[in-house]
Amino acid sequence: QVQVVESGGGLVQAGGSLRLSCTASGLTFDDYAMGWFRQAPGKEREGVACISRSGGLTYYTSSVKGRFTISRDSAKNTLYLQIASLKPEDTAMYYCAAGSFLLAPWNRGLAPGQYNYWGQGTQVTVSS
């Protein structure tokens, strides 16, 4: 049984930082591209960042470039999202997902429909 579990969310002041973690079990971690998504109330789920199976390719949505860093640790089956310079508009539920597709320049992995497994999410709230 595949389980994807996020952690690390919380209430942070604008300008602050957080590190989100996501642990995946029940699958071969290195066989999956991994992504972070977020969804604010009343909005669609948005792809934030993704990373290839090897960790050699990463892609970000434009609004987070330079502030968010995605990484993965295969030894720990864990995905990370380091978030800096938080803004109130970053407030959302953040989800981790695993996808069996090949991440490439022509497929940057920011579409939710490509992913096979999802976590339950961790809330990030940024106060102004």
Can you describe what's shown?
The protein is mostly beta strands and 128 residues long. It has strands spanning 3-7, 10-13, 18-25, 33-39, 46-51, 58-60, 68-73, 78-83, 92-99, 117-118, 122-127. Strands 2, 4, 5, 6, 9, 10 and 11 form a 7-stranded mixed sheet that branches. Strand 7 and strand 8 (78-83) form a beta hairpin. It is globular, with a radius of gyration of 13 Å. The model has no long low-confidence stretch (mean pLDDT 96).
Structure keywords:
seven-stranded mixed β-sheet, 128 residues
Inertia-based shape = globular
| Average pLDDT number | 96
The number of E-state strands comes to: 11
Uncertain stretches of 5 or more adjacent residues: none
Helix-strand pattern: EEEEEEEEEEE
Distance between the termini: 40 Å
Return the structural class.
mainly beta
How much of the sequence is in beta strands? over 45%
Number of helices: 0
Which radius of gyration do the C-alpha atoms yield?
13 Å
Major beta sheet summary: 7 strands, mixed
As a percent range, the share of helical residues equals under 10%
